[in-house]
Amino acid sequence: MLPERYDPFLVVLSFIVAVSGSITALRMGARVGAQEGWPRYGWLIGGAFAQAVGIWGMHFTGMLAFILPVPIAYEMGRMLLSFVVAFAGSLLALRLTQRRSLRTVWLIAGGGAIGAGISGLHYIDMAAMRMAAVFRYSWTLVVASVIIACVFGLLSLWFGRRHRRADPAQPRRMLFSSGLIMGMAIVGQHYTGMAAAHFFPGPDARASARGRIVPQEELPRVVVISTFVILLAALTAASSARRRSAHALVSQRILEAREDERRRIARGLHEDLGQMLTALRLNLQRLSPRDDASIVSESVTLVDESLARVRALSVELRPSVLDDLGLGAAVEWYAKRSAERAGFTVVVDNSLDSARLPEFIETAGFRIIQQALTNIARHAHAHRVVISLMRAPHELELSVNDDGAGFDVAGAKARAEAGESLGLLDMRETASLAGGTLSLSSSVGRGTTVRARFPIAA
Prior knowledge:
By secondary structure, the chain is an alpha+beta fold. It is built from 13 helices and 12 strands. The longest helix is centred in the middle third of the chain and has 67 residues, at 219-285. The protein starts with a strand and ends with a strand.
C-alpha cells in the first residue's frame, strides 16, 4: 500500500467548514415553517444550498489534508455531480423535517436523505480522483461510514427541529448543538470512508480522464470559495432574521396601539357618554305630569335607543369579556350574539385551556373571527357556522366554516386589492401583524372556510 498521512491543521479546518455550513443550513431551514408560498421555498433552497456547500467544502478540505506520495487530480464533471447529489439530499431532508407537524417516519426519512447526500458526495468524488494509483475498499467500513452519516444526520435534524420549536432563551445553544452533530455526521462519514480506501501503485489515470481535471493544487480555491459562500449565506440569514424580528416587534406594537385606542374609546363611550345619557333619562322621568307627556315619552325612547347604540358600539370596539375571560369565552359570547342577530346556528368547538394566550394573539384571533362572522351575516346566507379554536404546544389555529353561498376567492382578492372590499384585507393584515398567517377556501354554493394560524413563542 502507498503510505498515507494527514495534515492535522487541515483536518480541524475541515470540521470547522462542516459545522459552519450545517449551522447556516439549519438556521435557514428553521425559517421554513414560519413562511408561506414562495418565501418558504426560498428559505428551503437556501438552506439546502448552504448545507451542500458545507459538505462539499468539508470533503475537499479533507482531501487537502490527505497526503499521498503521488499527484492527485479530480474530474470536474463528477465534482459537480457530487454537489448536485449533496444538494438534493439536503433539500429532501429539510423538506421532510421542517414541517409544521413532524411524524417519526418523516424524521427517519430525512436522516436517510441527508446521509445519502453526504455519502453520495464522498464516494462520487472518490471516483473522480485521477492519479498514478488505484484503491480498494473495505466494505465493512463503507457501510459503517453510511450508517454514521444517517444516524448523526438524523440526530442533527431532530435537534434542528427542536431549535425551531425551542424556548427563545435557548436557541443559540440548540442551533450550535445541531450544527455540531451534523458536522460530526459529515466528518465522521468522510474519514471513515477514507479509512475504508486502501491505495496501491497503479497506472497514471490523469491522461485518460474525461473532461477537465482539477489538480489538487487548485483545491485551496475551492475551499476559499466554499467558505465565502457559507459566510455570505450566514450573513444573509442573520440580516433577514434581524429585519424579521424588527418587523415583528413593530407589527406587534401597531396592533397593541390600535387595540389600546379602541379600548380607550370604548371605555369613554361606556363610562362617560353612557353615564350622561343615563342621567338625562332619569331627569326626563322626573318631569311633572303637567309637562307634555308625549314629548317626555319620545325623549325617553330616544335616550334608550342612544344608550343601546352606545353599548353596542362599545362592545364592537373592545368587548370587556375578551380582557376579563380570554379568547375562548369572548368568541363563544360573540358567536352566540351574532347568531341571534343574523339567524344562523353556530357551534363553537373550543379546545383552549384556561391558560391565557399573549394579548396580541387573543386580540388578532378575536378580530378575525369577528370579521368572518360579519361577512357571513352580510353575504353568506348561511344556516350553520362552525368555529374551531385549537391550541397545539407551539401554535394556535382558528377556523370559521359556513355552509353559505360561498364566493370566488381569486376575484374577491382582486376586488380587495382594488379597494372595493376591505374585509379580507383587514383579516389578512390583522393576522400578519400578530405574526400569523390567514388562508381562505371557498367556492360558489359550497360555503367558506377561514383559517388563521399563530405561532406561540414562550
